[in-house]
Amino acid sequence: MYTLKNGILYKDGVAHIALGQSYYPSYHPQKVPVLETGDRMGEMVKDLKDMKDAGFNIVRMAALGKIELDDNNEVSVSFPFIDEMLKEASRDDLATMVRLQGYSINLHGYENATMQNQSGEEMPFYWSWFVRNCLNHPGILEDNERATLVSAEHFGKFDDMVSFQIYNEAAYPTKEFYDYNPKTIESYRKWLIEKGLKSEEEAKDYEPPRRRPYYDEDPQEWVNFRLFNTERMSGFLNNLSDIAKKGYQKAETLTCHMASPFTSGNALRGQDYFDIAERMDIVGITHYVKSYGPDYYLASLVLDGAECAASTYGKNAWLIEYNARTACTLSEWERETYNAIGSAFKGIMYYQWRADFPFDDAPEPNGFGMVFNNGDKTEKYDGAVRMTKLIDSLSPYIAESKKVRSRIGILYSKHANAYYDAIDNGDVRSVYHGKDRNIEFLRRIYTALKDCGITPDIVRSCDLSDNPLGIEMLFVPSVKGLSETETEEIAAFAEKHTVFNYTIKGDGYIIHENCNSEKIPQGCSYSMAELISVLDYIPAAAVRCPDNSVSTGLIEGSNKFGRHYLISLTNHDGFERAVSDGKLNISDGIGGGVSKARWITPYEQKDLVIEKDEKGFGISLPKIDTGAFVILYNGDFTAL
Fold this sequence. Notes:
Blueprint: E1 2-5, E2 8-11, E3 14-16, E4 18-22, H1 40-53, E5 58-62, E6 66-69, E7 75-78, H2 80-91, E8 95-99, H3 138-155, E9 161-165, H4 182-194, H5 200-203, H6 220-247, E10 252-254, H7 266-269, H8 273-279, E11 282-287, H9 295-312, E12 316-323, H10 330-342, E13 347-351, H11 381-393, H12 395-398, E14 402-403, E15 408-411, H13 414-424, H14 437-451, E16 457-459, E17 473-476, H15 484-494, E18 498-503, E19 508-511, H16 528-534, E20 541-544, E21 550-559, E22 562-571, E23 583-586, H17 588-591, E24 596-600, E25 605-608, E26 611-613, E27 616-620, E28 627-633
Parallel strand pairs: 4-5, 4-13, 5-8, 8-9, 9-10, 11-12, 12-13, 15-16, 15-17, 17-18
Antiparallel strand pairs: 1-2, 2-3, 6-7, 14-21, 18-19, 20-23, 21-22, 22-28, 23-27, 24-25, 24-28, 26-27
Helix pairs in contact: 1-2, 3-6, 6-13, 8-9, 10-11
């Protein structure tokens, strides 16, 4: 009944936006919805039915059970509770996703296989550090592959099981520097030789740096080791994705990365959306940044960054964990949902359905859920159900639609991130206390463009030649810190396109030396608003209102009712004030192809008037509370 194809969920061949929940009797013994002594089976049956009644169509679970070696050294698995949950979900008309791995897999009990910090100390156990074993230990890699293959073969037998999750929030720890296990150092030496960075003689006894460089030291050694570890993390996850597909080819694979690529400390955490997009079927992320106030810009950047990585390889992005705290208000829920739809996500899975049991020392007792642990509804419940059912009804306008590209990009560079980590952070050993000027500058550029009504794409220099996202204007957060190859790729792109380098002096932008523009002289610094005005760039869709607090996301597609555009409006005012006098401006390229507009919220639907104005077309908007959808179309409007 349910299938996944290129990250889009189909039910009996009809495309739907995937709307899901986690039901997570977790690998951690004190993160469970129901006590082991309770009626886990009976409560699960009730909870799944409630999910379906609430309008959700997919549920995520973890492969809890036994994975071990038998007397013949073969992998044996047993997942009795999860097997029953898969069957029950199918009976309830729910698609399912299974996370295949827990904290670490070490079937043979290898000693000295745990990651080590710069002091040679083994990684301690902490509940949110899900990958603990050395990613360069041959035995650990083989154990992970064998366990993943057998587990995937097992779960592939169930109806409506459409996706495998590869680990969860896999990253290096948030404290200290990793990984210095002897097996990692051995692999790093080989990597240096393969990359041409060291000769065999130089690499033979080479030790990676165990501290950041001093002011007079070359940061490149630190940069190299950080890039190596990121490459190993991505390779580990992607390899297990390939193995899972061998076990059951029809399931689409994803992992669950955090917001790390756009926050300080990413060089230490080792997560990269683009690496995952290249080999997995879906780019999956967790997301707990609120979508209003100053945090809105980071929240949107994370969404757009993941979507851009996916689209670079012709794929789609999902939210595998979206904020559903028990204390989450309905207004937060609505804003988050509008924002995700506007960023062209094809799956939104909230974390989670029933909150964890409140043990005294539980990591997140009663912290996240649509319902509290005792089953009582949270404040957002009824409104969230209303929103979920609205989104599903709009699937013909969302599920197979694509983001309308702005043709403006911001450069993403792992090399520059690692470079600034090296020179900015000294002896800071916590990712939460560090800084990264390259990421900070990227976020400034993103914010400035969003305030001009433009949603930029995030792009790597290696993709500029093929240019899958159609970038015509590129902003570079920092020239310093780029690799030689990145510098050359940007210079070549600048010969045919417009490139601006950010400058901290004046918080402005200087045109690249290879660009020849009659409108923008060389050597001068300009503000973003000045550039957009002089270049006469007209956003495809932007809302004008007194506090500039409504942002747009624009997707386009076609269905049996004709071609359409869906504009998702998010009111991100920090004081959560409604906007009563907003006007939606749309370019000639958009407005000239449609004749009708419809305003849609969970509370009302009404037709709007499209009027021609001096810069394109305009639509006067009703009062905007948390947000709204505006669908532009011809002919008849019909939802499921």
